[in-house]
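Researcher: Can you fold this with tryptophanyl-5'AMP in place?
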Amino acid sequence: MPRVFSGIQPTGDPHIGNYFGAMKNYVKLGDQLGKNSIYCVVDLHAPTNPSAYDPKFLAQRTFDMAVANMAAGLDPEKVIFFVQSHVPEHTQLAWLFTVITPVGELERMTQYKDKAGKLESTPAGLLMYPVLQAADILLYKADTVPVGEDQVQHIELTREIARKFNHAFGDTFPEPKAVLEKDALRIPGLDGSGKMSKSKGEATTIGILEPLDSIWQKLRVAPTDPARVRRTDPGDPDKCLIGDYHKLFSDLPTLETVYQGCRTAGIGCIDCKKLLLGSMTQELAPIQERAAALRADPDFVRDALLQGAREARAIAQPVFEEAREKVGFLKL
Ligand code: TYM
């Protein structure tokens, strides 16, 4: 049976890129594989990027991210769901991996280059980030990693670290594969360029827990197909951000209405955006209701995370012991 692992940073409210690119896949794989699917809020990764981290908010954002995932359908009774720093073997295994990972490989990572390029002084932890990510996955001997396209390079490095470890110390770890949601590889941000990401500012993201009137304020001013200067100009929904979001949120009849309407100038951009808001409301309102109920019962969420950490540790401890012995440490 496959063993799934994935992690998500504690940004509080995940955006629709996280949701369609990764979180929906967590739920789907969880339904199929039960306790063989392991998910984690990766709080240890957060302080590696000083521009996005504030100690005052870390605990709350970690809790909120757990709530968001549970509200989106992740059932802690069914899967293993926990917070990374509650299982100390993550950092312990990461240390063992630092000694077999060339610095040159880490400096090549696109995300490292992007983030380090914006900082005056680069913390060593930012460079080591993908080593900790490899430890996250291999600590559970996971072979399947549901992620968005931006994480593929890190998963390739994980495979390389597994290979190097196995070669140096004997067969221990599988070489895991990234699993991508083909229709949601890279959800664009509201600025219409690249990938939706919190680092580009809140104005470019749509949070799954964001109030619907705030979402509407953002949609109202979002760019559409630049060829549609006047209401009477026909447009191309495949070149339109709103068209992209419709593909994620809308059912087939709504999609047909907006695609046909846009191409024939039968529907204006504002009406098209209103239909999108309707589809978003259908998907997000129930999640937001569940999140409110979970927030009203914080002990339930905390107990679930505590139980998740226990379950995770029961797998992690023997794997770390195996790795530790193979590297040659004294056993008492
Ligand atoms: P993070 O927290 O940035 O993102 C969580 C997941 O969301 C996906 N994602 C997207 N997918 C499609 N379109 C987008 N615009 C978009 N933005 C984000 C990400 O690919 C990711 O799957 N390094 C990881 C966290 C991590 C991890 C791990 C992941 C730590 N350890 C072990 C897998 C396995 C990260 O920063 O994801």
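Model: Folded with tryptophanyl-5'AMP in place. Residues 163 and 302 are 37 Å apart (CA to CA).
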